[in-house]
Specification:
The complex is a heterotrimer of chains A (334), B (237) and C (405). With 237 residues, chain B is of the alpha/beta class. Chain B is 40% helix and 27% strand. Chain B has helices at residues 42-50, 72-78, 95-102, 108-121, 123-126, 138-151, 168-185, 196-202, 220-225, 227-234; strands at 4-13, 16-26, 31-35, 54-62, 65-66, 80-83, 156-160, 188-192, 205-210, 213-219. The chains are: A mainly alpha (334), B alpha/beta (237), C mainly alpha (405).
Amino acid sequence: MPILSIDFLINGLASGAALALLCLGLTLTYMTTRVPNFAHATIAVVGAVVTLLLLDWVYIGLRGGAVYYTLYIVAPILSALIAGLLALTIYIAILRPLSKKGIGIIGLMIATFALDIIINNILTLILHLTPSKYIGKLIGASVKGYGVLVYIPILDVNIYLSRLLLPIIAVILTISLHLYMTRTKFGIAMRASIENPQLAKALGINVDLVYAISWFLSGSLAGLAGSFLAFEFPGINPAIAYLYIVSIFAGSILGGLSSMYGALAGGLVVGVSEVLIPVMIQNIYYTITGSIIDIIRYQKFISLLIIIIVLLVAPQGLAGVSWRNLLARVVRVG
Amino acid sequence: MSLLTVEGLNAGYGKFHILFDISLNIEEKEILAIVGPNGSGKSTLLKAITGIADVYSGRITFKGSDITRLPPHVKARMGLAYLPQTNNVFTNLSVWENLKMAAYTLDESIARDRIEEVLSYYPMLRSRLGFKARSLSGGERQILALAMTLIRKPEIIMLDEPTANLAPIIAKDLLKKIQALREDLGKTIILVEQNAKAALEISDKALLLVSGRIEYSGFASKLLADTELSRKYLGLR
Amino acid sequence: MVELPIILMELANMLVFIIVVLALNLMAGYAGIPNLGMALFVYIGAFAVAGLSVRFAIILVNILNPDFIEMMRVTPPYKYAVGESSILDIILFKVTDPAVNRHLVPELNSIIGDSIPLSIMILTFILASAIALGATLGLIVSFTAVRLREDYLAIVLLAFSEMLVQVFFAQVDWVAGGRYNTWALTPWPQKLSQSLGNLLPSGVKPELFIGLIVAIILAITTLIYTERIANSPMGRVLRAMRDDDLALTSYGRDIAKIRLKVMMVGSSIAALAGVVYVLSVQPVVKATDYTRVTWTFIPWAMMILGGIANNWGVIIGAVIVYIGRKLIEILAPPAFTTILSLIGVEVTGATIDIVKAVTVNILVGVIIILVLYLKPEGIVPEKPSKTLPRKTLNSLIEKFRGSSS
């Protein structure tokens, strides 16, 4: 038994890519409006549910057909759009008015906590009451899903197409977001508003618009990540968001909650570790003792450990570490 | 007619009344230094003129029209630039991006020309265009802040302790550059300074504030020569 | 007609929520610690009555009757599940095995019930372990983020709660039953139950009655205790630290200590509430039942509605939310059956259960947001802090009035 197989690596990468996008969104709204959004994972599930409903609606037994493949483009875009609009609505209709009334950070946080539970329950209701055409029921585990498995001859593995696509899309998104933030006037204005809203306002930048856009972006990134989840799992239980939010916070805290690149790195590290570390431990245990321990269901513990370690050792996260000094020291020692 | 006049100004923050019955006027292309001990309300006076602090009573006129109650961004558009003491540049943005943000509301082609203009006025910045403002020295940062202000071609530039936290030589150089703004570009300048002597040396007029009230208003050179006032309040000689 | 036992049980359940909300108010309302991990502390109290005290009881019983565990190996129904396991194995791993636990707990209960000293020891152990576990967990959990901003503290508390309850306790079967139910001990002497049984109206179980009494005592004690803290010099320090970030930075170290202390106290109170809940309302303990929705979200709604940092306010909030929730649960099913059948959805028992829960959760969430928007200070706003206790102040005022007239 090898320590790691190629499909586990791809799974890890997909999980890391999804989490990177989610951490990026959470960090973005935290940097602009200073609210830790406890509803972020549920917004991702909104994306998943939109895709699931779409798949269930148009699926016509053509798994793998041309019509079906176009869904891999249409569904994520639609999910991202709807989740983005939802996040925007949350900000404009609830958080901004609350903040204008002078509600402090704890109050805003509790508002997102309440929104999380409201949206999650609405999703549960929708999934329960919508009869599924093909997969029995839309909530919880059902036997067959809508995902397409792709056979990769060189590696001799079958992989869900969505898992292959997700990391690629995450990379494309990261690059385009980077270009947007550094090359366009409005992108630069966003960074300016994040750093110094007073000065930005004085220079005529519409800071309110920047905040609104950050919520829309944050929501659509979450919706996109969630959409790919729906291709893999036939039935979705919205309650997974209650655990998943911990991983998102872990990645964001590791990233430092103060830099977009930190968030991407933090999410990637947490997502990959959650998949690979339990498998590695399992394999090492197997090679030593010859028996199997079932620890994969505890994988989410890694997130908690990461939160604890980061907060105790370097509460500023990756973004707070002075990489140049560290590198200089390493080079000097080397 | 004076470019900017302030008459009987009472101002502060909410319940905290800081300035009492302040009057001043400044003509075109003049430099006015506002000096005085710590906590005498120098910065508050600039903020009251800009519209950040609360004005309880009094009148501020700019080119003859009453601007007392106008919001800060309208005053900025009219040509009154205010340069705060700290956080006056975006440290995470490059020098070029900072200049671009300063020209945010201008048309693309005008913005390009204006940036080009300030870059040729402050060639030092051209060599730093790609650097993050964070990596600039204190003096360079103040020059960047000045450049950002100049992009919008203000008539009056109000500076709040630009030389605070700068080494003496650099501070002196910066004051020279501020003086040059009048000489080269014909700007009118109001300068709040902790370093009274250096500020008075480059100024035409001076205002000595003590506990929110005017103690002296007149020629800068006269205040410098007044041994009693300058010893008592400015710590000179 | 609703029967008396049901009313009494609902009353006990409401008291449990009142205790939880008072504990939450101490942490979040007075000290500004946004505890989003309340579920963990309530659960840990439930664990003290179930998984943990069963082990203590079996050891005690084995000391009194040295063959007790030995006999489990050969007597049905235990022998099928226990087999050749060692004594340590049985105590550590087998007592929570559903095949064992189901039979063992009633048997232990009857042994405990027969002996007054034994039941006192078990009761003491339950209370002491709940307090100790609550305080220790409160300390460990908040230690990571106690020096950081409140939002980090909230994230850490939520993360710990979700991970420990929904992953660790819910998945590791041997510790506390994991995916299976475990039964709680009832540490009451038989004699007490019997004599009570003759006095009580028919249908009311003595255990429920005793549980209710315990709930009342604990609720009153908690109220007096938190009121005293709130009006003490420490209460003023807590509020100052909650309202002023500057104080936090200039007295950083002391404030971390105070926060830890409040976390320990608040968490042990919440754990005691968990004990009362199990003893009076729900003797079957399963980690997955202790969700953040029931034990974190609903207490928060109660506190916000009633009025943060006002003990009487949060009690009123708890009563309103609790009764409102019950009313919805009673009224929603018939209403929804009608609506659902009108839109042509097939109505099953499972659907109705889900609709019921979903309605309650959504409404509670809406209440939180509406209160924050319309009346952030809640129904009963926070009292302004007085330098002197109210009683002294009132007597002083009386004195002055008396002397002037």
